[in-house]
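Sequence in, structure out. Go.
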Amino acid sequence: MSHRDWIATDLDGTLFARAFAGTEAVPATWRETDAGPVASSWMPRATYVLMRALANHFDIVAVTARDLDSFSRVAIEGISFRGAILANGAIMVGQDGDLDSEWNDHMSIVLSTAGEELEAVRLQIAEMSQGAARPRLVASGTPLPAYLVAKADEEWWRTDAGVNLLSTLQVRQCRAALLKNELQVLPPGVSKLLGLAAYRDRFAGGVPPLMGLGDMPADFEFMKACSFLGIPAGSKLEQCITVP
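Output:
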């Protein structure tokens, strides 16, 4: 069975952002209001033109920290996703758009050892930040949380209180990463790379993505598994590149 070439892409910060991107920007995510759906994120026109053209020739697979509910609010005219790796790899959506039950069963085992630690870290962040950081447990396809995220103003993480919280974070088996304004705490076995590898073997005949797109240093892990890398200009990942 032959498989179509595919592209793996992060979403927020790579394809679109909450900031309005100009009069020719294309709505990318939506929220429900009493008046009906209202755009909540936008894709710059140049990005839209590129991705629309790529979608005509390749399968586009989302690789994102968004959970299933958040991903359901992504709707971009003319661009369809042919599967998705969600919640930093804890959730897999197959090419038919359905939750992949085999991966879900696997993650039920993976996540079973981290629930207490994630809850303890959530309580620690809530207490030590005194409301400056907003921690929540992100849903997986199982009754167990996929990971923890805590959002605060980017500047707050550099204050004495923010630095103290990060230095005393009660993580043992989990790993923590600060991505701009949000802290992510991920259980072992949860990563975009592992999700990408499983999707490749299950739905792409073992063929790696032709291209990987991402905007953060954390995305580089899964992007290295792709044949080509795409980095948005001005992104955090681009700023990490040094040219002699």
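Check: The radius of gyration is 18 Å. The longest strand covers residues 26-33.
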